[in-house]
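hey so u asked for the seq, here:
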Amino acid sequence: MVIGIDIGSTTTKSVAIYPDNSFKTLITKAFDPITSATGALGKMLMENKLEIASVKNIVLTGVGASGIEGNLFGIPTSKIEEIQALGLGGMYLSGKTGVVIANLGTGTALVEAHKGRIHHIGGTAVGGGTILGLAKAMLKISDLDILFEMASRGRQGQVDLLIGDIAGADIGFLKKEMTASNFGKLADNATPEDIALGIFTMVFQVIGTVSAFAAKSRNISTIVVTGTASNTSIGKRILDAIAEMYDISFIYPDHAAYATAIGAALKDR
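ran it, structure tokens below
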């Protein structure tokens, strides 16, 4: 069994991959790398009733990995660069190669992934952190679940200027219900629910458009969406509308939040 651990600034994701390719996932929280890594390992073993002797090796990645030297509990421990881990994990979860991976975290990283070649394209500072920051500033809300529930009852036309507001009809490949300007028509009577939807819409439209342009520039038609902010029905609806516009496809694999940890565990396989 191999354990991959993705050590973030406050959240650590770990994955145990068994010889038969089945795996277990786990999220823990801690504020220093050593506590994060050892806590994740211990909790993974305890919750799944595993013996430490069954762990063949451990692979670390993420921003906190640089703070750990040597082996953990005598188990051979190595590291993998985060972009490489993300590429391996994204391809594994999607079952595809020759893809762009959009990893939605605090910001958004874009990675081009082929078998044997993984390349960091770039990304955007717009991501889950943007959603939470704007929600706190505009709505005094810091809970993502509350914000999502509010947004599900929002009305986009109360916040965004749409193509139909300008032209009254479709313009070329732009449908009249598409956004011309995010927050460009913020009504005086817009509700907090409308504003919540406006925040989600702006963030996911930026992510979707940047991802689509990156894929198109490399003649790639499939974008694999990973990361902790990837699994929302509102986000998927927005991204799928962009996919139709640019004739590409977004894939939302199961366990997408663990893509980087899974990629770490796959390092030597």
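The mean pLDDT is 94. The helical segments are 33-47, 82-94, 128-139, 144-151, 163-167, 192-217, 233-246, 259-265.
lmk if thats what u needed
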